[in-house]
């Protein structure tokens, strides 16, 4: 019950942030009130951590009955034969492999285990949200050196009603600081200087143009 309440609280905070952004963009405050987003943002190099809804390929050498594709449940656990439930979310594939090996050591002689992530969502805090006037608003797993162009491609691009140059990038790693981004210049005019870097946890809000 406590985990459910925490998840609801995080969802409510995210919805509140998106709603606040929409109010700012549609009201008297516009993206021109925000500083331009830095073209490059230094992201820490970190090993990928498994997230809920990822799918992992677990291979136990010479034990095909223990191997296979395993989904990570929303609670962050996986279920394996002989082992039962095992925490996966928040761990690197190497760490999960080591945990599986320890759990199997009581049942299998010197188990050799490998873990490969085949479908990526990432941990909740690192996901990037794209909201507003795009074809497919969604949460996107962060990848090293990702830019707003990568986000737009994955979100299917902006709608014709979007005001791309009024878009805002909310940087949660900087306590919710907002930056102005020029998506129209990037897509319609080929201005590569408008293709700014994104960081884990960023929120990109694309408002609708006021006609």
Question: Residue ranges: pLDDT <50 for 5 or more in a row?
Answer: 1-8, 19-29
CATH class of the largest domain: Alpha Beta
H-E string: HEEEEHEEEHEEHE
CATH homologous superfamily descriptor of the largest domain: Outer membrane lipoprotein wza domain like
Q: Report strand order across the widest sheet.
A: 7-6-10-8-9
By DSSP, the count of extended strands is 10
Q: What would the average pLDDT be, to the nearest integer?
A: 88
Radius of gyration: 21 Å
Q: Classify the fold: give the CATH topology of the largest domain.
A: Outer membrane lipoprotein wza fold like
Report the helical percentage. Answer: 10-25%
**Beta fraction of the residues?**
15-25%
Q: What class would the helix/strand composition place it in?
A: alpha+beta
How many domains in all?
A: 2
Which of globular, elongated, flat, extended, rod-shaped describes the shape? elongated
Total helices: the number is 4
| Biggest pleated sheet | 5 strands, mixed
Q: In angstroms, what separates the terminal alpha carbons? A: 47 Å
Name given to the CATH architecture of the largest domain: Roll
């Amino acid at each position: 019950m406590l985990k459910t309440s925490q998840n609801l609280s995080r969802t409510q905070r995210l919805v509140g942030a998106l709603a606040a952004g929409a109010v700012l963009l549609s009201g008297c405050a516009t993206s021109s009130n925000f500083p331009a987003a830095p073209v490059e943002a230094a992201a820490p190099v970190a090993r990928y951590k498994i997230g809920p809804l990822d799918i992992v390929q677990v291979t136990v050498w010479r034990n095909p009955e223990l191997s296979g594709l395993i989904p990570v449940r929303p609670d962050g656990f996986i279920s394996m034969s002989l082992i039962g439930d095992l925490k996966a979310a928040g761990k690197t594939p190497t760490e999960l492999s080591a945990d599986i090996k320890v759990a199997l050591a009581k049942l299998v002689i010197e188990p050799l285990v490998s873990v490969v992530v085949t479908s990526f969502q990432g941990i909740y805090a690192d996901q990037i949200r794209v909201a507003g006037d795009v074809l497919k608003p969604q949460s996107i797993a962060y990848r090293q050196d990702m830019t707003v162009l990568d986000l737009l491609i994955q979100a299917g691009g902006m709608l014709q009603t979007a005001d791309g140059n009024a878009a805002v990038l909310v940087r949660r790693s900087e306590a919710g600081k907002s930056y102005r981004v020029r998506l129209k210049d990037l897509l319609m005019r080929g201005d590569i200087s408008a293709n700014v870097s994104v960081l884990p946890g960023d929120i990109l809000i694309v408002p609708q143009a006021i006609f």
